[in-house]
């Protein structure tokens, strides 16, 4: 492995995040390219960046289908590089110009060579022979007879039109033949490697000494330290060390049969919070000459905290960020902590690829066992003792015993010279409490009733009253919800530093926040947290977790302006967005959106299939879906208030909403939920492209126009950017059920055009008008409710089954066909209706 200065250190969690990003993009290459030949050296030799054989085959199949030609692979569709039509004096393309290169892209023999190498590595002689036979006629030769790999083959200007009319019909010419002394060195080098491999003069192991690629049959028998392939069956056992923060807590837990260690008992091994490890990693990659700083100040993930570190002569184990002391109210819900522990264990099981066992440190604090928190914590600790937690196998033992089977990382980049000052790291210290003193366990606090969460004052009555009157009422009031409301009036009027009987306004709200948390008054807690501008830990990493899955996130209240996040942002920027966009109607929205982001970040990492068909994760709309769900469950009774639910209940409700809609639910409810989630059917965006091809004047809905040109010229059918453009068109629709009906309408239009190739729209297609026509027909067939106010109520239409006689699809189809027949029908030579 070389000496310390030759070792490349990688952030394990960042590497895993990169792998997830790649897997979520594939079989696409990027947002703008549906596929690209550059994926070949990425997924096969030399990078071997993928461990999913099915996804590899799917991606390779797409590259071959879309890009393979007689003379090599195209780099990507509509690639203008070195074509006869490319303007070589310009370094950019004009709008709609890339359409000119459709079908005449240059073909590169280099990628045939990569396919030969891939065939050797994967033990596929048929693939090797196929691409050798394709490559041999393409090779040029020097005057000495040495083979030369041309960089590309191009279509000459005189043959461009003929090639466009009949793809693959024209002869292409090589870019270079080597006789002028100019060589494409990359192609030559890879050709030599392929020849050596094919002739068995070198073996794959010679080219891949650290085992980046391991054949499936050998994966059980090798160290996977450097390989991106995991074991065939993931039967990982996670090693767990239970650490009590004080000796008296250890004694207390021992009475229930739970064996733990204290920080003193694991010495000389130190226990660090993940933020101390972050401080150590500040020094990773620092290079003054190159102007490189260290690792950014972002939390370490649970993969990174599952290793043992040797740092400046110390042996260190770390606990995950979920055990950090937090000022945000979610930490007051012990069920959230338990859920986070289970999620972390499942994540480690799924993504751990190191040779040793992961070591997961569980830190138990005295605060965890107070009141009603004790029983769930005790049940979880009992599950650890049994060896199964949340479906993950665990083995609990002392840290000193577990260290032998763990992965040890030497942080050699922390070499400190005599002139440098060593960084100061703080290890976990045992609470200095009498060993035999009793652990204070407060009496169990039941969940607060709905009545307790309601204020006994009306905020509108107090907005115009004097500050003195508000202060008087605040002093006389015992209701925490009322105190929070009155404090909010003072905060907005007088500012956070205004003095009250109990200190400043900000200090008074902080006390309300703490007391409401201990009483489980979640609505009051959220209101106070928002007034104080609280920000949950790990908000930025959670958004990044969503982005790496190929999704976008929008923050903002339902029905209000939203901010789209498509790139990772710093916590400060995210906080500004949340507190500017999310508390316009209800202050509590700003903090519950943070909860949702944290939950979604975990869920999408462990269960990405729940977000299938959702390109944009619109947090405000998902909250609206959850409120719909509560109304549906309540029936004729008043719906439960989302803001009064505990964080763990909110998370469970979110999981329920994300599940595919169950049978037995009415169609109105289904459309409301799916519309809120922005869920679309498989192949939806491709079908919109096909509609646009037959709609010269474009589509419009809710005032948002999607033109045919330059859209079709600037983009290709399968690229992500087009899908985002369609989502942008649908963005202005403010009713979830109406949005879902528009999605159904577009699917209907696509099917009709697919079955009737002779038809196309003559004018701009106004989807709102088509839907209105369908609804008018629906009203004729159903008893129309009396009263003009009900004439435009589409509720009955939304609640109608889509398929079958008098289903919504039949009315939508009729409206679409009527619009199509208003235009001209294109004549066809093989039209069966034509007599002569």
TrEMBL record:
Its main location: membrane. Keywords: Calmodulin-binding, Carbohydrate metabolism, Cell membrane, Glycogen metabolism, Kinase, Lipoprotein, Membrane, Prenylation, Transferase. Residues 52-621 form the GH15-like domain. It is found in: Cell membrane. InterPro entries: 6-hairpin_glycosidase_sf (IPR008928), GH15-like (IPR011613), KPBA/B_C (IPR045583), PHK_A/B_su (IPR008734). Pfam families: Glyco_hydro_15, KPBB_C. GO terms for cellular component: phosphorylase kinase complex; plasma membrane. It is a lipid-anchor. Residues 662-820 form the Phosphorylase b kinase regulatory subunit alpha/beta C-terminal domain. Residues 436-456 are annotated as: Disordered. One of its GO terms (biological process) is glycogen metabolic process. Residues 442-456 have a biased composition (Polar residues). It comes from the Eukaryota. Pathway: Glycan biosynthesis; glycogen metabolism. SUPFAM superfamilies: Six-hairpin glycosidases. GO terms for molecular function: calmodulin binding; kinase activity. Belongs to the phosphorylase b kinase regulatory chain family. Phosphorylase b kinase catalyzes the phosphorylation of serine in certain substrates, including troponin I. This is Phosphorylase b kinase regulatory subunit. It comes from Hemiprocne comata. The lineage of its organism: Eukaryota, Metazoa, Chordata, Craniata, Vertebrata. The gene is Phkb.
């Amino acid at each position: 492995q070389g000496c310390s200065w030759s070792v490349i250190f990688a952030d394990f969690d960042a590497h895993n995040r990169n792998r997830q990003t790649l897997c979520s993009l594939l079989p696409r290459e990027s947002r703008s390219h549906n596929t690209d030949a550059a994926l070949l050296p990425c997924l096969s030799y030399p990078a071997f960046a993928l461990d999913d054989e099915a996804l590899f085959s799917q991606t390779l199949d797409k590259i071959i289908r879309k890009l393979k030609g007689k003379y090599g692979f195209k780099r990507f569709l509509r690639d203008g590089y070195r074509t006869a039509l490319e303007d070589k004096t310009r370094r950019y393309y004009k709008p709609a110009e890339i359409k000119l290169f459709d079908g005449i892209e240059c073909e590169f023999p280099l990628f045939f060579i990569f396919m030969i190498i891939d065939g050797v590595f994967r033990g596929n002689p048929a693939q090797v022979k196929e691409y050798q036979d394709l490559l041999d006629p393409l090779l040029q030769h020097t005057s000495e007879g040495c083979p030369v790999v041309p960089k590309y083959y191009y279509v000459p200007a005189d043959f461009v039109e003929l090639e466009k009319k009949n793809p693959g019909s024209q002869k292409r010419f090589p870019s270079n033949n080597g006789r002028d002394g100019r060589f494409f060195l990359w192609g030559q080098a890879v050709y030599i490697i392929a020849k050596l491999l094919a002739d068995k003069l070198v073996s794959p192991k010679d080219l891949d000494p650290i085992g980046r690629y391991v054949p499936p049959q050998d994966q059980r028998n090798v160290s996977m330290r450097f390989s991106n392939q995991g074991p065939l069956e993931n039967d990982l056992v996670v090693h767990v060390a239970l650490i009590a923060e004080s000796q008296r807590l250890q004694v207390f837990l021992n009475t229930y049969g739970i064996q733990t260690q204290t920080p003193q008992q694991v010495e000389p091994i130190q226990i660090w919070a993940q933020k101390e490890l972050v401080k150590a990693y500040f020094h990773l990659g620092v290079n003054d000459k190159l102007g490189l700083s260290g690792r950014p100040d972002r939390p370490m993930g649970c993969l990174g905290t599952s290793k043992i570190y040797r740092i400046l002569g110390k042996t260190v184990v770390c606990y995950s960020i979920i055990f950090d002391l937090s000022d945000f109210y979610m930490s007051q819900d012990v069920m959230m902590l338990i859920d986070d522990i289970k999620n972390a264990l499942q994540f480690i099981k799924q993504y751990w690829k190191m040779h040793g066992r992961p070591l997961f440190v569980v830190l138990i604090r005295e605060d965890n066992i107070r009141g009603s928190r004790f029983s769930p914590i005790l049940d979880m600790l009992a599950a650890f003792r049994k060896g199964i937690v949340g479906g993950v196998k665990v083995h609990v033992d002392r840290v000193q015993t577990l260290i032998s089977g763990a992965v040890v990382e030497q942080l050699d980049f922390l070499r400190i010279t005599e002139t440098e000052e060593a960084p100061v790291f703080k290890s976990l210290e045992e609470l200095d409490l009498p060993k035999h003193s009793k652990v204070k366990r407060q009496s169990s606090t039941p969940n607060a009733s709905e009545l307790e969460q309601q204020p006994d004052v009306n905020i509108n009555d107090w907005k115009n009253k004097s500050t003195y009157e508000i202060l008087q009422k605040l002093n006389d009031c015992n209701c925490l919800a009322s105190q929070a409301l009155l404090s909010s009036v003072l905060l907005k009027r007088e500012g956070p530093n205004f003095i009250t009987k109990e200190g400043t306004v900000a200090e008074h709200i902080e006390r309300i926040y703490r007391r409401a948390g201990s009483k489980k008054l979640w609505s009051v807690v959220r209101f106070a947290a928002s007034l104080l501008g609280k920000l949950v830990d790990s908000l930025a990493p959670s958004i990044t977790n969503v982005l790496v899955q190929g999704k976008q996130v929008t923050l903002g209240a339902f029905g209000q302006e939203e901010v789209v996040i498509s790139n990772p942002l710093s916590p400060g920027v995210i906080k500004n967005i949340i507190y500017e966009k999310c508390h316009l109607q209800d202050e509590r929205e700003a903090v519950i959106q943070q909860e949702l982001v944290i939950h979604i970040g975990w869920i999408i990492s462990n269960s990405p299939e729940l977000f299938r068909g959702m390109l944009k994760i619109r947090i405000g709309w998902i909250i609206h879906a959850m409120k719909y769900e509560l109304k549906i469950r309540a029936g004729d009774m008043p719906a439960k208030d989302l803001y009064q639910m505990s964080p763990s209940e909110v998370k469970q409700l979110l999981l329920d909403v994300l599940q595919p809609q169950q049978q037995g639910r009415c169609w109105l409810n289904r459309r409301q939920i799916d519309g809120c989630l922005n869920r679309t059917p498989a192949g939806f965006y491709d079908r919109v492209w096909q509609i646009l091809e037959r709609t010269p004047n474009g589509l419009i809905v809710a005032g948002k126009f999607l033109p045919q040109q330059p859209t079709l010229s600037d983009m290709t059918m399968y690229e992500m950017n087009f899908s985002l453009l369609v989502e942008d068109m649908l963005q202005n629709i403010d009713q979830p059920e109406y949005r879902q009906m528009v999605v159904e309408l577009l699917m209907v239009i696509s099917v009709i055009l697919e079955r009737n190739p002779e038809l196309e729209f003559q004018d701009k297609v106004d989807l709102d008008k088509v839907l209105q026509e369908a609804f008018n027909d629906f009203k004729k067939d159903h008893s129309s409710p009396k009263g003009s106010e009900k004439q435009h109520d589409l509720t009955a239409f939304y609640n109608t089954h889509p398929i079958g006689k008098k289903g919504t699809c039949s009315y939508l189809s009729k409206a679409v066909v009527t619009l199509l027949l208003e235009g001209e029908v294109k004549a066809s030579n093989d039209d069966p209706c034509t007599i002569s």
